[in-house]
Design a protein that fits this description.
252 residues, alpha+beta, TolA/TonB C-terminal domain, 4-stranded mixed sheet, 3-stranded antiparallel sheet, 8 helices, 9 strands, 17% strand, elongated
């Protein structure tokens, strides 16, 4: 009986300690004032001339040529630590676009060392982790977009014709032959569309649909995986843009 009582008392004591710890944590959070690090630019600039971080990145990345970023749009995520003296340490890529672009952004972030005002906790300077997102955005060429859309529509027309074959009273061999021919045409149109507009959600979806019609399940699954990944990046971009966490680097 005493053993049972000891166990009950121990459990009650443990629960009480956990409740106290949770209360202390909540109190600490409520009473803690956190000031995030602020990019202040070069120290020899006047306040009116100080750059924001997006401008700093834009200037740092101007040396990239068209060949470096052509067809490589996307978001680079860089994790780093801003020390109490404003220096930058532990710089690393957490989301990659390409080796050339990743290295360029890493260099730009590293070059921002001593251009930061350290973050503070309750008025005391503290080293803080930070993540920045850099979206490489190549303005769409109107004629390219038009060509991509035209070829996509032609591909969709071929798929629609295949669907209509199901309701036609023709022999199975002829139906199979027409389906294969139209699926091949759709695939060709989609390849043209992709050249004009790579990594497009609609084009990727219809590529998966055509592979399905051709009975190529492995290729279909690959395209569906690519579609889901593109959709995830699309949602991430929208979220980051709304939260103003992303610098957008546009190349003309």
């Amino acid at each position: 009986m005493k053993k049972v009582s000891y166990v009950v008392m121990l459990l009650m004591l443990t629960v009480g300690i956990m409740a106290q710890e949770e209360e202390m944590k909540q109190k600490f959070i409520e009473e803690t004032r956190v000031e995030a690090p602020v990019f202040i630019g070069e120290t020899n600039l006047n306040d009116a001339d100080r750059q924001n971080f997006s401008s700093h990145l834009q200037e740092e990345l101007t040396y990239l040529s068209e060949l470096d970023y052509l067809g490589k749009e996307g978001i680079v995520a860089i994790d780093f630590v801003i020390e109490t003296d404003g220096s930058v340490t532990n710089v690393m890529v957490s989301n990659s676009v390409s080796k050339t672009i990743d290295e360029a952004v890493l260099k730009a972030v590293t070059n921002s060392s001593n251009m930061w005002k350290a973050g503070k906790i309750n008025g005391q300077e503290n080293a803080m982790d930070k993540t920045i997102y850099v979206k490489f955005d190549i303005p769409g060429n109107a004629s390219h977009n038009e060509q991509a859309r035209e070829n996509l529509n032609l591909a969709i027309k071929q798929v629609s014709d295949i669907d209509k074959l199901e309701n036609k009273d023709i022999d199975a061999a002829a139906k199979t032959k027409k389906t294969a021919r139209k699926a091949k045409s759709a695939q060709t149109y989609l390849e043209y569309a992709e050249q004009y507009k790579p990594n497009d959600l609609s084009i990727t979806y219809w590529q998966a649909r055509v592979y399905e019609l051709q009975g190529n399940n492995d290729q279909k699954e690959q395209k569906l995986d690519q579609y889901l990944e593109l959709a995830r990046h699309h949602d991430l971009e929208k979220s980051l843009e709304q939260d103003i966490l992303m610098a957008v680097i546009s190349f003309k």
